[in-house]
């Protein structure tokens, strides 16, 4: 028969292992029954003070995890009373050493947390990293807090880690700390990938191991992030510099990303649409409000269902491909290229053959006017110089 202490040690050890390594199931973390989550009211709101929130969270987490051995010894003394865990005169030597090691770990945790708190968190690893950036730590922390409030940021959660990419910073929060590097100093490299089967039908997920290194090693430490390959495109869109990929790594794109490539190729083959002279200046894409409009819907097919669209170019290639793919049968991918979709504005039906690249004639006219103005400028300067040259030649003669 298995002893009670074996069962207790197994359960406590498994829980502690998942707690310390950040392997708690998502359902457990969502329910808020992990040790750091229990004390979350002490941290504040990370949407207001991201740096302060994680400084307090990691401090409490380190303290609680180093107190786990003492909690284990207390529980062991309760489930095995005959071991005399609470009697220093009759306890056995191995159990006494266990108590000493537990108290030692607790002392380290209490000392560390007290030191970080006593000097207003200046000695906390995250604040020390921000202090090395050349700015006062509070100013650097305010920059991180401000950019974290921006809704247009990349956030990816995997296990106990969360990767966050803002306009200027790359951050990764984990169980016991926060990795941070400024984008201008970061060099990202996809070193390897892993594939895991998810269903009996053979559906799999690919995870990328990305190394984040800094060109200023005296300021930032290198770290690694793990990311689902379906989020790779979103990550690259938020980075200032491209990610280097090892030759042995083949990144699996999502269906939407692969269709976007096919959509661009088909639109490029459909030819170009030139806007007539006097057309109003094009505004940013109404979908993303960032890119310039690239697509003009102009009926070119022989399908009776399609109608002529009279809307001016208002959508970029990426947004139009997302609009088109979202209105296709998600269970029959083979029909996407031959399908149809309504215009986002006037609802005129169009197909893949009706998308044309928009070429703005006004831009060419502007360039021509600039060239003409430049020619007139040189001509006027040359005209003023000709009488002087004529007088010089006459004097020579």
Description:
The chain crosses the membrane at residues 6-24, 60-79, 91-118. Keywords: Membrane, Transmembrane, Transmembrane helix. Pfam families: Tmpp129. This is E3 ubiquitin-protein ligase TM129. The chain has helices at residues 4-21, 26-31, 35-38, 50-79, 93-118, 125-131, 137-148, 232-238, 255-269, 317-326, 361-396; strands at residues 154-158, 161-165, 169-173, 178-182, 186-197, 204-214, 223-228, 244-245, 272-274, 295-297, 340-342, 349-351, 355-359. It contains eleven helices and 13 strands. It has four domains: 4-125, no CATH class; 151-253, Roll (PH-domain like), CATH 2.30.29.30; 256-359, no CATH class; 368-397.
Task: Please summarize what this structure is.
Helices cover 43% and strands 17% of the residues.
Strand-helix topology:
Blueprint (H helix, E strand, L loop, with lengths): L3 H18 L4 H6 L3 H4 L11 H30 L13 H26 L6 H7 L5 H12 L5 E5 L2 E5 L3 E5 L4 E5 L3 E12 L6 E11 L8 E6 L3 H7 L5 E2 L9 H15 L2 E3 L20 E3 L19 H10 L13 E3 L6 E3 L3 E5 L1 H36 L1
Parallel strand pairs: 5-8, 9-13
Antiparallel strand pairs: 1-2, 2-3, 3-4, 5-6, 6-7, 10-13, 11-12
Helix pairs in contact: 1-4, 4-5, 6-7, 9-10
């Amino acid at each position: 028969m298995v002893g009670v202490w074996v069962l207790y040690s197994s359960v406590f050890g498994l829980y502690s292992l998942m707690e310390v390594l950040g392997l708690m199931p998502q359902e457990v973390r969502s329910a808020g029954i992990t040790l750091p989550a229990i004390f979350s009211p002490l941290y504040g709101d990370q949407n207001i003070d991201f740096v302060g929130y994680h400084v307090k969270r990691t401090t409490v987490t380190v303290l609680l995890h180093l107190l786990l051995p003492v909690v284990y010894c207390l529980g062991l003394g309760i489930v095995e009373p005959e071991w005399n865990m609470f009697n220093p005169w009759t306890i056995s030597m191995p159990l006494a050493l266990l108590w000493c090691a537990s108290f030692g770990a607790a002392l380290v945790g209490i000392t560390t947390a007290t030191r970080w708190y006593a000097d207003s968190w200046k000695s906390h690893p995250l604040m020390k990293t921000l202090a090395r950036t050349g700015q006062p730590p509070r100013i650097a922390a305010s920059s991180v807090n401000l950019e974290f409030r921006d809704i247009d940021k990349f956030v990816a959660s995997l296990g106990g880690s969360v990767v966050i990419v803002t306009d200027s910073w790359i951050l990764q929060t984990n169980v016991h700390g926060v990795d941070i590097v400024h984008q201008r100093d970061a060099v990202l490299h996809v070193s390897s990938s892993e594939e895991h089967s998810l269903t009996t039908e053979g559906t799999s997920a690919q995870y990328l191991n990305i190394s984040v290194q800094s060109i200023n090693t005296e300021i930032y430490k290198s770290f690694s992030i793990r990311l689902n390959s379906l989020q790779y495109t979103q990550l690259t869109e938020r980075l200032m510099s491209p990610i280097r990929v090892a030759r042995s790594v083949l990144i699996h794109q999502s269906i939407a990303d692969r269709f976007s490539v096919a959509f661009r190729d088909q639109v490029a083959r459909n030819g170009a649409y030139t806007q007539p002279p006097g057309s109003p200046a094009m505004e940013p894409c109404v979908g993303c409000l960032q890119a310039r409009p690239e697509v003009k819907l102009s009926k070119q097919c022989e399908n009776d269902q399609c109608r002529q669209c009279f809307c001016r170019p208002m959508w970029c290639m990426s947004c139009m491909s997302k609009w088109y793919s979202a209105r296709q049968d998600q269970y029959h991918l083979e029909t996407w290229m031959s399908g149809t979709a309504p215009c986002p504005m006037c609802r005129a039906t169009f197909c893949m053959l009706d998308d044309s690249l928009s070429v703005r004639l006004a831009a060419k006219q502007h360039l021509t006017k600039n060239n003409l103005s430049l020619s007139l400028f040189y001509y006027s300067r040359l005209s003023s110089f000709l009488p002087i040259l004529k007088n010089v030649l006459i004097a020579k003669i």
